[in-house]
Design brief:
- The chain is mainly beta and 232 residues long.
- 19% of the residues are buried.
- It is built from 4 helices and 14 strands.
- Pfam families: Cadherin, Cadherin_2.
- It comes from Xiphophorus couchianus.
- One of its GO terms (cellular component) is plasma membrane.
């Protein structure tokens, strides 16, 4: 019963703070990379709000947010805002170019609420992935050079420069790879027949397509392509 009452008071307090945010005019902005260690300092709230040591001790500075986890905390001795939970950008903002977390810094006596926007920076923690690991095509040996065959696109949860940027093709004498921008779909690749096929010499051709992202260092994923040469 005591816990329920305490929990109810906390909910009312949080709701009141969130309501006050609508009347708050000041906003702080910080940036932090995803997957940083717990305890990583994001910024100094006390300094940026012109608070002194006395304010920190008497005005009960705290962090309030609408997230299910308490991702950030504040050190009441230094005023540093720091990370308290693992931040996964792909979980918070899947496929979004910009990812920001909005929290509030609340002060008592008198009560003030300051908005804080934290831009979560992407790190290259995912490799490109083909949904299917093997791609099969039946190709007629009567086709002329210049024929094109679209390939499945690799997916990468990372964004910006860490997304898929190029494709590479294993060395062979029959096919080349044409890579073009697919707009919001990133880059797309097509196999282009360069040399006529001869089933009597080779009934199947195995190629390996590699998707490479733009991270430093880059990550990659592969797709095996089997081309069975037919008479039709």
């Amino acid at each position: 019963m005591f816990w329920a009452t305490q929990h109810g008071h906390l909910w009312i307090y949080s709701a009141a703070l969130l309501s006050l945010c609508e009347r708050s005019t000041s906003q702080l902005s910080y940036s932090v990379s995803e997957e940083v260690n717990k305890g990583t300092v994001v910024g100094n709230v006390a300094k940026d709000l012109n608070l002194n040591a006395h304010d920190l001790n008497t005005r009960d500075l705290r962090v309030v947010s609408g997230f299910s986890k308490a991702y950030f905390g504040v050190n009441l001795k230094t005023g540093n805002l720091f990370v308290t939970e693992r931040i996964d950008r792909e979980e918070l903002c899947p496929h979004a170019v910009k990812c920001s977390m909005k929290i509030q810094a609340a002060l008592s006596n008198p009560m003030n609420v300051h908005r804080i926007e934290i831009n979560v920076l992407d790190v290259n923690d995912n490799s490109p992935l083909f949904i299917e690991q093997t791609h099969t095509l039946n190709i007629s040996e009567s086709l002329s050079p210049g024929e094109r065959y679209p390939l499945p696109a690799a997916v990468d949860p990372d964004v910006g420069s860490n997304a898929v940027k190029s494709y590479k093709l294993s060395q062979n004498e029959h096919f080349s790879l044409d890579v073009q921008s697919g707009g919001e779909h990133g880059v797309l690749a097509e196999l282009v027949l360069q040399k006529a096929l001869d089933r009597e010499k080779e009934s199947a051709i195995k190629l390996v397509v590699t998707a490479v992202d733009g991270g430093m260092p880059p990550r990659s994923g592969t797709l095996q392509c089997w081309h069975f040469i037919c008479f039709f």
